[in-house]
Each structure stands twice: as C-alpha cells, then as structure tokens.
Amino acid sequence: MKIYGLNKTTLLDYPGRVAATIFLGGCNFRCPFCQNSSLVLNPSSQPELSVTEVLSFLKKRQGILEGVCVTGGEPTLSPDLPEFLAEIRALGYPVKLDTNGTRPDLLKELAGEGLIQMAAVDIKACPDNYPSLCGLLHPDLDAIKETVDFLINGTLDYEFRTTVVKELHSEQDFVAIGKWLSGAKAYYLQAYRDSEEVLQPGFSSFSYKELEHFRQILMQTIPLVELRGID
Ligand code: SF4
C-alpha cells in the first residue's frame, strides 16, 4: 500500500464528520480538469508515508476524529486496499471511499464486508460526454452504470458529485444526468476551481446563476441537489 498524503483534519471530506483524509496514488482516468495531477501522472515523485505511520496517527486520534476518507487518485486501484481498510476499521473508524466508479465489483465487496460506510462517486458528465471529461476515448461506462445502480438500489450510504467545468459541460449534460441518476438521494455540483495542480490548465467555472439553473434541472428527478464550492 502506497500512501502519498494525509490531511490530518478536515470538515469537508466526510459529510457531518471531523475526518482525516488519506491520499493514494495512480488513476485509470485522465480528467483534464483533475486537481491532483501529480498523484495521477507520477505518484512515485510524491513523498510517501508508511502504513504504520498513518495507522499510528489514526490510533492517537481515536475519540477525536469521527471518520476516515480514502481518496486518490483512484483508490480502488491500490491492490492492498481491502487489507488497509480493515486496519482502519479495526481502529473503530467509519470509512468513506472516493471513487470514479470504474470498479463496481470491488466496491460491492468492500461494502459487503463492512470495510466502507460511505462512497462518494464522481459522475464526470452525461454518458455521451464522458470521453471529454475523463480523458479516455472509450471509458467503461457499463462499470460506472453498475456502480450507480448498486448505490441507488442498495443500502450503502453514498453521494454522487460532479465538478462542473464551463468549457466541458453544457445544459444537456445535466438534463441527461438527471434522467440517469433519477431516484438518487443526493447529488452535488462542485464549481471548478483553478489551481497549479490541474492536469490541463485553462478551464473556468460557470457563474452561480448558471450552476443554479443546472441545479433546478436536476431537482426535477433528484430530491437533494446542492452546490458546493461557490463563493
Ligand atoms: S479527477 Fe479523479 S478520476 Fe479524474 S484523473 Fe483525477 S483522480 Fe482520476
């Protein structure tokens, strides 16, 4: 297990909980707006933390932290993920896993074994627009749809979320996503933010008014749709 980052305290990453966030490296997507380009393109260039160090930190924070978020990159690509999550669970922490939804079998296994208590799944775009957003010509949309179905029809707590990029999304995305995610319990639109770590610089965000318009479209089929990261 290679760990490339630890945010020791966050109120933002695990809804309703004071949490720590652990960053794993590598990804099977190349989203041009990705904010973690070093972790995706060249994780071995990043300083590494040992599992022992991270678990020891979590042990010391028992009773203070209320959860652990495991993110990436794409954490489901790390081969020792189940064993690592089991060690976090043994310390009593609920775990939220951030994923792009491309490994539904593993997600089901982790949920079935009680190794995760919540999943946050990125919905990059409507299915037709996925290639532009995930940077692959032929993404495995069947896998992502399987993940979505599993969460909508299952018992694992979850949220869907989309980072909305002015140059890459249009109203049509949100009309189609509304149909696709119909029945989902929660969906968040996150305004794109520029940073030095962006994989392909030069993108911008929609205005608050435009994002609110997309939210209204989505509210026709999804009961809870909220905007995040709006100034
Ligand atoms: S945004 Fe997420 S899924 Fe896309 S390349 Fe970055 S880490 Fe991978």
TrEMBL record:
CDD domains tied to this protein: Radical_SAM (cd01335)
Cofactor section: [4Fe-4S] cluster
Top class in the EC scheme: oxidoreductase
Residues annotated as domain Radical SAM core: 12-228
Keyword Membrane: no
Keyword entries, A-Z: 4Fe-4S, Iron, Iron-sulfur, Lyase, Metal-binding, Oxidoreductase, Pyruvate, S-adenosyl-L-methionine
Gene Ontology terms, MF aspect: [formate-C-acetyltransferase]-activating enzyme activity; lyase activity
Top-level lineage group: Bacteria
EC number: 1.97.1.4
Name of the protein in its database record: Pyruvate formate lyase activating enzyme
Taxonomic classification: Bacteria, Bacillati, Bacillota, Clostridia, Lachnospirales
